[in-house]
């Protein structure tokens, strides 16, 4: 089953329903952030684009357009679950289709920042409730009764006193003639039948029986296949190449040079186009390429971190936030803490390597693939290829992982260039080694943390961050601090720490960098929450009580009390190490406690992880738990298993043999608790990652007295 990408007009024409179906959507007029719900035919008459829509046909089938990608985080489940709740239909009666890339119609389509639910849930609930009320109004008119005497349930409108009922399919013609209501009453949380329930995901059967179509599965008529030999040194040019042997490989059609953009730089390579992936792969192996690698720095990991450390010792950096003035307090403190934390570069290592199908048709282009940002791709290809934006069609498939990498624009641009040169639709496949070594990577970042305590109280804290700025690669000004310096730091610490500052020391290397799950919170969280632990020890305080002392906000207090209760924090026993951390990421706060001990050989083992998330309003408890569990496992790998090293300008780790993923037998028991409240929705896909590593290293300190400040580290060698 492949999600289809069709326009509303084509959809209605294909179903043969035209105006005999109810189609609703919302749009934003001018600069207004408030949405207005209108019918599909009215949108066409007014000349506006619906931002999203619900379509109910005369059989009662409900179709909802999803403008965001599904890469395992649960959008394919959450959106129909929300719609089904307020629309009062069974979940299996809701069909979801992916919308094409279109910034005018959908606004931001970037699936990142844990934003799919929190960015659209209020509008989607309002949209589906509006459709429900229009159907109730249509039924009430048929029965000549008031709408108050009617209710909706399981795809029907029912008259309370008589028990008469009509299926939605019988009502859509009349409902489509009504005006969309301006105000609708949404359900209370206590009345939910589907939302907040751990319902099975709609995409699970597709992904287990092999019918789900990922980018790498996509096939179109006449499609050729391509692989590219790219410069292994991140930058550099093709000096010359010999394709004679490659062209002798059966199935190889063409060999030519290709240059794709990586931010403002170029990455050159040689494309081999063939009639099968295997032929393209063998043709690539037969290529002989001479590279020109002059004119740029051959970076190494040791040099990068040596320079970072020197910068942290000699510069204050650009001020990101300052409260009070920690400098004079720290200057007078003889026994202040002054430590360095180091976090490594990481690959995204998605299970589905990069791939893209592109068909350049002269004055138009169509693209299919695992794409996190279809709207960005549409704009980028339009600009780079000189084709009108409306003639660039970007179709999303399922993604086998993304973590930020598939929101980048290099692989889609490259596929379009190859299709144009080949004169045919082409699928470009990246090998695991391509994906691992070419980047962009999560930036490695170092931190200097200074702090002082007096009489058990924090008197001053000063954080300096030194690492590559993703914004600089995207063209932002270099004289302003990284806007993610505070990412991960629980903001309510500012309520009770009088003297505290954060600064950014700009740092440049040729290594291309990009977002990685939870972005800078993935590195910030380790430094900031490790240092809070060091301050607690210096103050002679229990680490969890110490955090409660400085996070007096009600939601933070309840969160910390819950993780304290679940983990049995107050009943800790000898020869057990307990560590705690709390971070905020994409409007959600997560606290974690990790328990460690030593096995019979004296090696550290993780006994259990307790995680409590306050994400406000949420859809599916199972999805929330799965995302927190997945985040913890990803954090475990980044903390103890893998790192991208650079030597002589080359990425060293090339595959899972050296960039080792955690194995199932290495995963500790994980217990996840979700806080119930009526606060606005926060993110879910990423906030569970940042607190794990500091909670783990804090637990190791509690057990062994050894403070870990450099990642990754080997659990077996602590």
From TrEMBL:
<dbReference type="InterPro" id="IPR046867">
    <property type="entry name" value="AldOxase/xan_DH_MoCoBD2"/>
</dbReference>
<dbReference type="Pfam" id="PF20256">
    <property type="entry name" value="MoCoBD_2"/>
</dbReference>
<dbReference type="InterPro" id="IPR037165">
    <property type="entry name" value="AldOxase/xan_DH_Mopterin-bd_sf"/>
</dbReference>
<dbReference type="Pfam" id="PF02738">
    <property type="entry name" value="MoCoBD_1"/>
</dbReference>
<dbReference type="GO" id="GO:0016491">
    <property type="term" value="F:oxidoreductase activity"/>
</dbReference>
<dbReference type="InterPro" id="IPR006311">
    <property type="entry name" value="TAT_signal"/>
</dbReference>
<dbReference type="InterPro" id="IPR052516">
    <property type="entry name" value="N-heterocyclic_Hydroxylase"/>
</dbReference>
<dbReference type="InterPro" id="IPR000674">
    <property type="entry name" value="Ald_Oxase/Xan_DH_a/b"/>
</dbReference>
<dbReference type="InterPro" id="IPR012368">
    <property type="entry name" value="OxRdtase_Mopterin-bd_su_IorB"/>
</dbReference>
<feature type="domain" description="Aldehyde oxidase/xanthine dehydrogenase a/b hammerhead">
    <location>
        <begin position="209"/>
        <end position="295"/>
    </location>
</feature>
<protein>
    <submittedName>
        <fullName>Isoquinoline 1-oxidoreductase beta subunit</fullName>
    </submittedName>
</protein>
<dbReference type="InterPro" id="IPR008274">
    <property type="entry name" value="AldOxase/xan_DH_MoCoBD1"/>
</dbReference>
């Amino acid at each position: 089953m492949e999600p289809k990408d069709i326009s509303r007009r084509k959809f209605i024409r294909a179903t043969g329903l035209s105006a005999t179906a109810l189609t609703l959507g919302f749009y934003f007029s001018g600069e207004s952030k408030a949405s207005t719900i209108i019918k599909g035919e009215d949108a066409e008459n007014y000349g506006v684009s619906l931002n999203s829509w619900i379509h109910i046909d005369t059989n009662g089938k409900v179709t909802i357009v999803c403008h965001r990608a599904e890469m395992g985080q649960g959008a394919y489940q959450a959106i129909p679950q929300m719609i089904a709740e307020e629309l009062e239909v069974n979940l299996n009666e809701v069909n979801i289709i992916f919308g094409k890339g279109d910034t005018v119609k959908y606004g931001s389509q970037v699936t990142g920042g844990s934003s799919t639910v929190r960015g659209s849930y209020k509008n989607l609930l309002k949209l589906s409730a509006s459709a429900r009320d229009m159907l109730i109004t249509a039924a009430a008119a048929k029965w000549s009764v008031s709408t108050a005497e009617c209710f909706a349930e399981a795809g029907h409108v029912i008259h309370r006193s008589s028990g008469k009922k009509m299926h939605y399919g019988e009502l859509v013609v009349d409902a489509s003639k009504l005006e969309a209501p301006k105000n609708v009453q949404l359900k209370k949380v206590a009345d939910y039948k589907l939302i907040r329930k751990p319902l099975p995901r709609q995409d699970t059967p597709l992904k287990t029986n092999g019918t789900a179509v990922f980018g790498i599965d996509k096939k179109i008529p006449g499609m050729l296949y391509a692989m590219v030999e790219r410069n292994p040194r991140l930058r550099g040019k093709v000096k010359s190449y010999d394709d004679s042997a490659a062209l002798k490989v059966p199935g190889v059609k063409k060999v030519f040079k290709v240059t794709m953009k990586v931010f403002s730089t170029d990455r050159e390579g040689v494309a081999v186009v063939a009639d099968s992936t295997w032929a393209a792969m063998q043709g690539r192996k037969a290529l002989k390429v001479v590279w020109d690698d002059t004119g740029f720095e051959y970076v190494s990991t040791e040099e990068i971190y040596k320079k970072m450390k020197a910068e942290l010792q000699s510069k204050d950096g650009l001020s990101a936030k300052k409260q009070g003035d920690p400098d004079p307090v720290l200057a007078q403190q003889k026994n202040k803490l002054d430590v360095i934390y180091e976090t490594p570069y990481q690959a995204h290592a998605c299970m589905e390597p990069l791939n893209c199908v592109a068909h350049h048709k002269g004055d138009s282009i169509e693209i299919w693939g695992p794409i996190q940002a279809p709207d960005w791709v549409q704009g980028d290809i339009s600009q780079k290829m000189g084709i009108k934006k409306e003639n660039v069609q970007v179709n999303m498939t399922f993604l086998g992982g993304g973590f930020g990498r598939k929101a980048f624009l290099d692989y889609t641009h490259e596929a379009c260039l190859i299709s144009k040169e080949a004169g045919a639709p082409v699928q470009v496949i990246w090998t695991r080694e391509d994906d691992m070594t070419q980047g962009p990577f999560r930036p490695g970042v170092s931190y200097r943390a200074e702090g002082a305590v007096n009489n058990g109280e924090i008197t001053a804290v000063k954080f300096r961050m030194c690492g590559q700025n993703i914004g600089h690669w995207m063209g932002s000004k270099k004289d302003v601090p990284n806007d993610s310096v505070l990412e991960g730091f629980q903001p309510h610490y500012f309520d009770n720490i009088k003297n505290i500052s954060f600064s950014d020391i700009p740092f440049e290397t040729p290594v291309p960098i990009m977002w990685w799950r939870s972005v800078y919170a993935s590195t910030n969280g380790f430094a900031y929450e490790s240092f809070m632990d060091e301050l607690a020890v210096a103050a002679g305080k229990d680490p969890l009580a110490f955090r409660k002392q400085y996070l007096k906000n009600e939601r933070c207090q309840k969160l910390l009390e819950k993780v304290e209760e679940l983990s049995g924090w107050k009943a800790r026993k000898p020869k057990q190490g307990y560590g705690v951390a709390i971070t905020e990421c994409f409007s959600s706060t997560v606290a974690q406690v990790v328990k460690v001990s030593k096995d019979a050989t004296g090696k550290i083992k993780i006994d259990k992880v307790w995680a409590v998330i306050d994400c406000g309003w949420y859809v599916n408890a199972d999805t929330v738990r799965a995302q927190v569990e997945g985040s913890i496992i990803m954090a475990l790998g980044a903390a103890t298993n893998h790192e991208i090293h650079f030597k002589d300008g080359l990425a060293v780790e090339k595959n899972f043999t050296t960039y080792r993923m955690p194995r199932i037998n290495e995963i500790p028991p994980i217990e996840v608790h979700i806080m119930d409240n009526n606060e606005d929705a926060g993110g879910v896909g990423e906030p569970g990652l940042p607190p794990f590593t500091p909670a783990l290293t804090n637990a190791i300190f509690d057990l062994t007295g050894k403070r870990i400040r450099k990642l990754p580290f080997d659990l077996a060698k602590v």
